[in-house]
Amino acid sequence: MSLRVITGKAGGRKLKSVPGDTTRPITDRAKESLFNILAGDVIDSNWWDLFAGTGAVGIEALSRGAAFVRFSDMNRAPIETINSNVEHCGFKTQTEIRRADAFVYLAQPADKKFEYIYIAPPQFKEMWVKALELVDNNLAWLTDDAWVIVQIAPSEYRRIAPTLKNLEEIDQRKYGTTLLVFYERKIS
User: Fold this and answer.
1) DSSP 8-class letter at 166
2) Confidence band (pLDDT; 50, 70, 90) for 188?
3) Are the C-beta atoms of 135 and 128 separated by less than 8 Å?
4) Closest alpha carbon to 108 in 95, 118, 98, 116
5) Whole-angstrom Cα distance, residue 181 to residue 109?
6) What is the pLDDT of residues 21-46, one digit of tens each?
7) pLDDT (0 to 100) of residue 122
8) 67-91 burial code (b ≥16 CB/10 A, e <16)
9) Which residue of 3, 9, 104, 161 shows the fewest CB atoms closer than 10 Å?
């Protein structure tokens, strides 16, 4: 699959893929739909692209006016790919790229607040549930009006999981083999 930035400052730029088959890049259709949903709210926002893979979602956010993106992934190949893609698109000064275990990182005290945390882990391992529950237990990572967006295969989604105290599902959209599930803080 050919990866590219759809629109904005880096629109049309091609992105490198992570070598091998360990990542599942978001399709252009799903990515474009995601950013159509978010529309102008992306401008000046802070993102955390968790399990970042190629960095395509965070780079698209920057291209559309996001102020800052933190990219994190546990493996060397995605981190090298993200570094290359960020450099190629000219967003080095607006990013932080960390090789880190997402679960350990999310359990730590927050060092920044994000309007968007994008969770797209390896499929069929229920890692999205664990990551979402960690965010739910550590709301210091989120601004008051933040959204947590999960990208999974539709068959991974189960209504009974995850167990959330502070976040609630507000929407979901299916694009072929990609399901995007949106969460925000519960209103008390």
Assistant:
1) S
2) low
3) no
4) 98
5) 25
6) 767 778 889 999 999 999 989 999 99
7) 85
8) ebbbbbbbeeebbbbbbebbebbeb
9) 104
DSSP letters, 42-90, are GTT-EEEEET-TT-HHHHHHHHTT-SEEEEEESSHHHHHHHHHHHHHHT
Pairing of strands 95-99, 114-119: unpaired
The encoded tokens of residue 147 equal 């959204």
Are 117 and 149 contacting, i.e. CB atoms less than 8 angstroms apart?
yes
> What does 10-54 look like in DSSP terms, one character per residue?
TTT-EEPPPSSSS--PPPHHHHHHHHHHHGGGGTT-EEEEET-TT
Dihedral sign for Cα 95, 99, 102, 108, please. negative
H or E element: which one contains 151?
strand 142-152
Radius of gyration of the chain (CA): 15
Give the C-alpha separation, 72 to 98, whole Å. Answer: 5
> Which domains can be identified in the chain, with CATH numbers?
3-185 (3.40.50.150)
Amino acid at 124: F
